[in-house]
Amino acid sequence: MRRIAIVLLLTGVCLPARGDDLLEIYRLAQRNDPTFEAARHTYEAAREKVPQARAGLLPVLNLNGNDNRTNASSRFTSTPQVDRDVHAWTWSLQLTQPLIRAQNVYAYNESEWLVEQARVQYTQAEQNLILRVTQACFEVLIAQESIEVADAQVKAAGEQLALAQRGFEKGANAITDIHEAKSRSDLARSQHIAALNELEIKYAEMEKLVGQAPNTLAALQLAAVVPRPQPDDARTWIEQARENNPAVLAPKAAVNAAEAAVSKSRAEYMPTLDAVASYGRNYSSGNTSTPSDFETRAKSRQYGVQLNIPLYAGGTTSSRVTEAIANRNRAMSELEAARRQSGAEARQAYSAIVNGLAQIEALESAVESSKSAVNGNQIGYKLGIHMNIDVLNAEQQLYAARRDLVKARYETLFQGLKLKAAAGVLTESDLKEVNGFLTYKK
After folding, report:
1. CB proximity list for 55: less than 8 A, separation 6 or greater
2. Per-10-residue mean pLDDT, the chain, length 442
3. CATH code of the domain in which 114 resides
4. I want to staple 188 with a disulfide (CB 3.0 to 4.6 A). Which of 154, 241, 363, 429 is the partner?
5. Structural domain span for residue 166
6. Number of domains in the chain
């Protein structure tokens, strides 16, 4: 409730205070949002697939060694039993360079496409963060506007109740005017409490996103004009969304990775050829298998090629090929589904902008008409032409139109960002542009 009291002070008195604009909230979310942080770590982990796959094309160097001592008793023909204590050690350095390993080449290609898929998914996470931050900020601002409207309704209903009571005392009003005014006053107070609760919920959602409670938020300027989409053509946006949306590019990379996986599985039928070189030394102080006991030392160098031709592996290779083909077909189906979904999202966002702009225009006219209706009913009530309920209804209509206008402006502006996200072109610069429409209340 402490935050609500602060909000009431800021919205009701409009004291100047340091606040947070949309960009500042976005920067906080970049550092503190666990969902975005998880996406970043996922991308960092995926990038390691390339060096891991590249290792299959590079030389492998191994050093092996052992050191042991053997205690034994040996008896040979016509000789007495003797005790032997043999010390031996050996080590070898082996280098293997793949020459022909087709499956490793396809594995490397697959890793590059998997990293590309992760990169696109990270880009999508960045765009989603922009949308989530903007939506959270706008919902808080709409909730604050609802409180201002509720405050005005409480004040107006209280004034009408006092006016009805004075009129009743003078014999100019009926008791029903007082009942109607009191009913509207109670309803306005109830709506005010609901608006406070809604604001607390929206603040909690934003705090969950950025990790801390924000200061006063910059709100949409009254003179700000919500722009139309550029280009102002639905088909252009839909086609771009079907090809450039990260939700499309990710499964497209997955299809390419799946194609490489199919080739990699088929390459397991192919022979492999490696160049092998080794160098080693060994020592033995004696042996336990011959009558004579003598020390040996040796050095060895080997080099050559090693050929491996797969003949039969129990059907494993065939099964892996079938599995890889099924995964590729699944990826292709997911790609087509993503294209259709992205096109639908672009169409919906574009329509929402067009309809939102029309709604803004209608609500602006409705606000002006409602102001005139309130003034006319107030004059008529004083002259005895209209009843108190007429004034209350006119005021209720005015406040509802104001609230709906503010909400429509924020939602239409947000749909502009959603349209760019659907087309895969949403960036921080677009957030800066929207931030330019916002200002702090004085």
Report:
1. none
2. 37 39 90 93 96 95 93 72 83 96 96 97 96 93 87 77 71 70 80 89 88 80 86 94 96 96 94 96 82 83 94 91 96 96 96 95 89 73 56 76 91 95 94 88 62
3. 1.20.1600.10
4. 154
5. 2-32+101-270+310-439
6. 1
